[in-house]
Amino acid sequence: MLQDKITQYTQEINAFEPTSAQDVENFRLKFLVSKGIVKALFEEFKTVSPEEKRTLGKVLNDFKILAETKFKESSEAFVNQSDSSNVRKEGDLTLPGSGFTLGSRHPLSLVRKEIVEIFKKLGFIVAEGNEIEDDWHNFQALNFAPEHPARDMQDTFFIKKHDGNDVVLRTHTSSVQVRLMEAGQPPFRAIMPGRVYRNEAISARAHCFFHQIEGLYIDEDVSFADLKQTLYHFVKELYGEDTKVRFRPSYFPFTEPSAEMDISCTICKGAGCQMCKQSGWVEILGCGMVDPNVLENCGIDSKKYSGYAFGMGIERITNLKYEIRDLRLFSENDVRFLGQFETEII
Hints:
This protein is α+β, with helices and mostly antiparallel strands. It has helices at residues 2-15, 21-31, 37-45, 50-90, 107-120, 135-138, 174-183, 224-239, 292-297, 314-322, 335-338; strands at residues 125-126, 132-134, 158-162, 165-169, 188-197, 209-219, 245-252, 255-264, 281-290, 306-313. The strands form 2 sheets. It has a 7-stranded mixed beta sheet, sandwiched between helices.
């Protein structure tokens, strides 16, 4: 009968005293698995009469709880015993240490740090800001009118509207420049490193997020010659004295006049490759004199003050410095790739 089986197995469980982890595992296999005794007794319970079910239901549930509790207590006893054994084995403080492997900084962090140090020596401070921005700081204050065609130059991630204004993931760190100028009066000399976002197809040359460093210098009598000399110094410090530089006229809504700066390709040394599109030159940054409208939008007298601004992608700079041909490697977290770079204690 079912009652007799429950009584027999209850006595067996109460008498169970394991001497090893294997005994505990054998107990589990006998009583608690899908084809074990507990499951079999519940199947048999379905066949008894309604009168017996009223009597045996609670008895059977108590039996199941007893089996599970016994298994849990036995398991914990052997786990604790194992932990105590490990403490005894590892507790000799006179033994030599096992040592540890140093990690490495991400290549983008290395290059960012190097760029920041170069500009700090020229008197630039570091300013940082929010990655989520409103339309005014990301676009309008920088001379992007609501219907300005230049907005098409940047494929933007729009988040939502707040108080009637668009909220976006910033497309450049120029928004930090705007907030810096709004918060005080010239002179300003600052660089703005940070992550930015654009809705672009991911490839070896583009990604939906990347990193920029922008620079801003506002003061009286600032000229384009000051901008060129600053950037010449930056390139020579970062890539070496033999690096060639050229400026090409360009267009940006927030600077006038505007230019793009190219350097001789560091990968093919000017012979032509995929990185430089066989031209021997690679564009690394955009720059120009801050448009007077931008100064006025930020509450700065454009008749008294002038200034320059520039911006570069850290991924592009890193590609050229370390001869990396696929910028997707920067975000894949492959330790075989990351381990090739400078090892430091962080």
